[in-house]
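In full, the data:

***
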Amino acid sequence: MNKPFAVFAAGLLAIALAGCAEPPASVRSSTPTPTSTASAYYKACLVTDADTAEGSPAQEGVAGLTRASSELGVDTDQVTVATSADYATAIQGLVDESCTLVVGVGSSATEAVQAAAKANTGVRFVLVDATPTESLSNLRPVLFNTQESAFLAGYLAASQSSTGKVGTFGALNVATVTIYMDGFVQGVDYYNQTKQAQVEALGWDVTDQSGTFVHSATSPWDDTAAGLTAAQSLTDEGADVVFAVAGAAGTGALELAAQTGGVRVIWSDTDGCQTQAASCAQILTSVVKDREASVFEAIKADHDGSGASGVLAGTLRNGGTHLSDLADDVPAETRTELDAVSQGIIDGTITVTSPSAVN
């Protein structure tokens, strides 16, 4: 999971870009498109970290850029950085390459993207899954209303529980985490309302915004043992489905599920059956941020001139967030119900709220 974006800002967007140097610590992949013309030149560019794992944010960003090249017929350029310290040089290289739009993915790119936007006011920038600390007219954040798909996960968890208790834990009590937990608990509540059930959601109080988090002496995002402890605090109370919103620390919940055999895990941020493939048997589904779709939509909006300002929100409606494939043993009836619930969220007949949601 990308590290927290914390405060949602109403970002905007802006104007054009220019071009040259390549940092030695980065790798460039350029895709010229023969349909571009001098009179209507457009070049979309992307900078990511070096995570090459299937389903990683970087790989999804590249897929979104590739889609823009194919479907929109625009030139593209992509740079991969080795470390966070390389972002500034890599982004300036893209500016010098006459890019019309530069897209950065993840919180590690935030500082460099924001600085580049301030220094290059004639260039447009997009920051995916992170929030800049100030609003700039040429910098547009792309954020995710994951409370919507987490609501579906809560409904699914309640439907699959045999103990009548499900739970969730997070890495930290920050907006990028609690937005998932808000939706999850509301989804359990909705299941109870529609099914006259009494499934209890452990680990998060929507009203008090307090709950179960990873307690780590090192990193709450990476401490597997501490993640296992957090998950076990929920299963000790009877939860048989656990929603882990804790990055790599969530693998502790997967280990616990493998050990006990009676616990299922819902993964967050990425498709767990891709990024945690060895543990796919323990995963009921994943609440996904679809960065591929969001990178494409951000480029398309800028290219078409339809994304003039404001935060671009990834939602169920535009595919920016969704559930991954469900476990094979989820009944057809439940799948049909989830489709109906999803449509209700999209058309507004079902409301999912979170203090962290993009308005």
Observations:
- Residues 175-195 form the longest helix (21 residues).
- The mean pLDDT is 89.
- The chain has two domains: 26-144+291-314, 146-289+328-347.
